[in-house]
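Weekly puzzle thread! Below is a chain. First person to post its structure in token form gets bragging rights.
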Amino acid sequence: MIKGIRTGNIILDCADAKAMQTFYAQMLGWEKGVLYDLPMVKNAAGEMYLFAQEEDYVPPVWPEEEGKQQKQMHIDYQVPDLAAAVVQAEQLGARKTAAQYGGDEFVTFVDPAGHPFCLCAESNIG
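Winning reply:
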């Protein structure tokens, strides 16, 4: 282990950085801002997501398909009320993926730029 290491900023490539900032600010309840000239959101603990707009951005395909853009990351969020969180995420612009494997434990979505993420029932935290 590298002494003192911790997660810094998480940067998500996308086609529309402002739209991603708005989506994550609304879904997570985090504050909007700018860091390194990039739109970002951060929470009270200082965790940050930055959004890098790429003109040639190609969204990933999930589940993976040979010859298509693969996902580079996948974030799981724990929520106390999965059913309510699913409704809210969809209202904010998240889309459920066609393939679902979580049953009552988690639901897989893609954000407006196509990055997959899951909303997981909080009781399933290990």
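Puzzle host: Confirmed. Bonus trivia for everyone else. The CA atoms of residues 18 and 39 lie 6 Å apart.
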